[in-house]
Amino acid sequence: MKFSLLTLFLFFCSSLFAQTPADSLYGVWKDEIQHDTIRFKAFKSFIWENYLFSNPDTAYILAKEQLNFADKKKNTFWKTDAYNTMGITWYFRADFDSAIFQYEKGLNIAKQTGNFKSASGILNNIGTIEMARGNYAVAIEKFNQSLKIEELKGNKLGAANCFNNIGIIYYRQKDYDRARHYYLQAVKLYHEGGNDAKQANTLNNLGVMENELKNSEAAIEYHILAYEIRKKNKDQFGIGASLNNLATVYMDVADFEKALPLFFEAIEIASAIQDLTTISAAKNNIAHIYLEQNKISESIQLAEDAYQTALLIGAIGELKNATEFLYMAYKEKYEFAKALEMHELFMELTDSMSSEENQNEIIRQEYKASYEKIAVADSLKALEEKKLQVAEIETINLKNKQRNQFSFFVTAGLIAALIVGFIIYKRLRITREQKKIIEDQQIKVLHAYDQLEEKNKEILDSITYAKRIQSAILPPQKIIRQLLKNSFILYKPKDIVAGDFYWLEHVRKADGQEIILFAAADCTGHGVPGALVSVVCHNALNRSVREFGLTEPGKILDKTREIVIQEFEKSDDEVKDGMDISLCAFSPSNNLLQWSGANNPIWIISKNSNQIQDIKPDKQPIGRFANASPFQTHSIALKPNDTIYLFTDGFQDQFGGDKGKKFKASSLKELILGIQNQPMNEQHDVLEKSLNNWRGSLEQIDDVCLIGVRFETNN
C-alpha cells in the first residue's frame, strides 16, 4: 500500500533579477521613472522569490496588484502572467476550482493575443489540476497541447515539464515502461539545461516508481538526491513531499523506526505552508503503520483526518487511499457497517480513476494527430458507399411497391439514377480536388524537406569543419606519448564537437627545470556552445603559461579565471559560462607533482593499494563566481608506480544499467581499483567498454574525458 507524492511541473520561470534583495525589487516596482517592463519583471521576481512558495495568500494579493496595473497599462502579456500567478497560488492552497478559473482567464487572453509561450504554460498548469482530480484523459490532452507548442518553439525546458507530467499519468495507469521513458526524457533535458531543481522533481518521481516496483534501494537513493537538492533550494513543498516519499519506502520495508519521524516532520513542514496534499498522504501512511503495530484506534483517527483533508481539496487519489485504508481499519475493529461503507466508496473512486473509458480516451489523445490525417480520406470513401447503399435500397423498395405502375417506375428510377449519378459525380469532383490539394501539399513538403536536408548538410559540414579546428588545439598523441609515456586518455565527445578537452604544455624554466603541465577540463555545456567556450578557456590556459610565465597550478587557474572573465565581459549580455578543471604540474627531476582543481578532483593510487587518495578541489569554477578565492596548490611527492586520474563528470553522470541510474563516482572508484594493476592501455579499453555497456541503448548525456598517468622512477 503506497501513499507517495509525485511531482508535477507547473509553468514556472527562472528569476528575472538574480540574487537581488527583496526591498530592492519592490523599490524598482514602485519607481515610476523606470520603464514598465522593468517594473513588471522586478515585481514578478519579488512575488515569486519571496511569497509564492512560502506564503501563497500574500502572493495572491500582490499578483492582483500586478493585474490591476497591467489592466491600467493595457499590457496583455503581464495581465496573462498575473492570472497565471494567481492560479498557482490557488493551486498551492488546494482550491482547484479557483485555480482553473484564473488559468482560463489567462489562457483566453494568451490565445487572443498570440502569446503561445504563456498559453502553453497555462495548459500545462490546467493539466496538473485535472490529473490531481483523476481526470487523466483531460489532463493528457492538456499536456499534449502544451508539448506540441513547446516542441514547435524548440523549448527543451517546457517539453521536459510535459514529459514529466505525462510520465506521471502512465505511472498511475501502471504502464511503468512508458512512464520510465517519459521520465528519462525529462531527466535528460533538465540535465542538459543544468536545472537541478526540476531534475530533483523528476528524480523524486523515479523514486516513487522504483518503490512501486519493489526496488527499495534505488527508490531511497532517488528520494535522498531529490531531498538534498530541494533543501538547498529551500523548496518547502518539495521538502515535505520528499520526506513523505522517503518515509513511504522505509514503511514498505517495515522499517517503521525510520519512517515515523520522517512522516511527522513532513506533516509539520506541510502544515506551515498549508500543503494539504502532503498532510493527507502522510497521515494515511502513519495510520497504516499504527495498524501494523495494532494501534487500531490511533490509526482510524489519523485515517479519518486524512479522509476529511482529501475531501476538502477534492483530491481523488488521496480520497481513494484514505477510503481503502479506513475499510481495512474498520474491518480489523469489527465495525463491519463502516467497513462496507468505506469499501463501496473505495470501489467507486477506483472505477472513476481507472475506468476503461478513461484509459481509452488517453490512448485516443495520443494517436489523435495521426488519426486526423487519415480521417478525411476514410470519411469520403464511407460517404460514397453509404449514399450508394441508400440509393439501392430506395430503388428496390420503389420497385416492390409500384410494380403495376411501370412507366412511373421507369421515370422514378431514372430520376433516382440521375440523382445518384450527380451525387457520385459531385463527390468524385470534390475527391479529385482534394487529391490535387494533397498532391500539391506533398510536393511542397518534399521541396521543404529537400531544402531542410540541404540546410542540415551545410550545418553538419560546418560543425564537422569546426571539429577539425577543435582537434587542432588538442595536443597530438605523439607529444603525449613522449611526455607522459605510461598514460591513456579516454575522450568521448557527446556530439561532433565538445565542451570537454584535454590540455598539455611542456615548459623549461630559466634554471633548466623541466615542467610538464596537463589537465582534463569541462566547459559549460556540450556540442557547439560548449566547444565555443572551450576555445576561450583553452586560450586562457595557454596565455597564463606562455605569456605570463606561470607554472604553479593554483596561480595558473587564478590567471585563467581572470582572462576568461575579461573575455566574457566584452559581451553586452551577462555571460556566466566557464570551466571546471583538474590541472597537474609534474617535475621529472624530483618526481614532484603539483595539482589544483576547480570543482574537479584528482585520484591517486599507490602500487598494490586497495584505496584511492581522493584530493578535493576548490568548490568554485573558472568563471564568474560570487565568493571567488585564490585556488589552492597541492604538492605531492610521488612514489614509483603511483597512478593518478583526472576526469570530468561525464563518465560518472552517465545514466544506464537496468534501472536507468547514474554510474556515480563510487562505482568509478571500484572499477579503477579493480584494474589498477593492468597496463594503462588495457585500462583505457576496460573503462571504455564498461561505459558503453552501462549506457546500453540510452543516449550519451555529456562529454567524457578521463586521463590516467602512471609515474615510474623517470616518467
Structure characterization notes:
With 715 residues, the protein is an alpha+beta fold. Among the domains are: 275-370, Alpha Horseshoe (Serine Threonine Protein Phosphatase 5, Tetratricopeptide repeat), CATH 1.25.40.10; 378-473; 474-711, PPM-type phosphatase domain (Phosphatase 2c, domain 1, 4-Layer Sandwich), CATH 3.60.40. It has 25 helices and twelve strands. A five-stranded antiparallel β-sheet has the order 1-12-9-6-7, covered by helices on one side. The protein has a five-stranded antiparallel β-sheet with strand order 2-3-4-5-8. It has a two-stranded antiparallel ribbon with strand order 10-11. A hairpin with a 4-residue loop joins strand 4 (579-587) and strand 5. Helix 9 (176-193) packs antiparallel against helix 10 (196-212), helix 11 runs antiparallel to helix 12 and helix 16 packs antiparallel against helix 17. The longest helix has 68 residues, at 406-473. The radius of gyration is 33 Å and the shape is globular. Residues 359-393, 395-400 and 406-410 have low confidence and may be disordered.
Helix content: 55-70%
- What percent strand? 5-15%
What's the CATH H-level homologous superfamily of the domain at 474-711? PPM-type phosphatase domain
Distance between the termini: 61 Å
Poorly predicted runs of 5 or more residues: 359-393, 395-400, 406-410
Shape: globular
Please state the second-level CATH architecture of the domain at 474-711.
Answer: 4-Layer Sandwich
Main β-sheet description: 5 strands, antiparallel
Structural category is: alpha+beta
Give the number of DSSP strands.
Answer: 12
CATH fold type of the domain at 474-711: Phosphatase 2c, domain 1
Mean pLDDT: 82
Rg of Cα set: 33 Å
The helix count comes to 25
Strand order of the largest sheet: 1-12-9-6-7
What top-tier CATH class of the domain at 474-711 fits best? Alpha Beta
